[in-house]
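Comment thread on ticket #2218

A.B. wrote:
> Attaching the input chain for the structure job we discussed in standup.
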Amino acid sequence: MDETETTILRYLMKEDWPVTTEMVAKEVGMAWNTAQIRLWKLASQRLVRGKKVGRQNQWMITDAGKKNLK
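C.D. wrote:
> Ran it. Output below, let me know if you need it in another format.
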């Protein structure tokens, strides 16, 4: 896992509710599609969990993601 993915996990950890891909992109300072790719990569490692709500993807950190930060 690189520094960008660690930054994404830290951001998700401090949020109390699911955040959108757009919110992650804005926080980390990258394009939406780049954030989406990073989030799907983290989801494949079971560090984040995503769900589709309407036209948006929403993301939350998993317990495994929290442990990975420690």
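A.B. wrote:
> Thanks. Noting for the ticket: Residues 21 and 36 are 6 Å apart (CA to CA).
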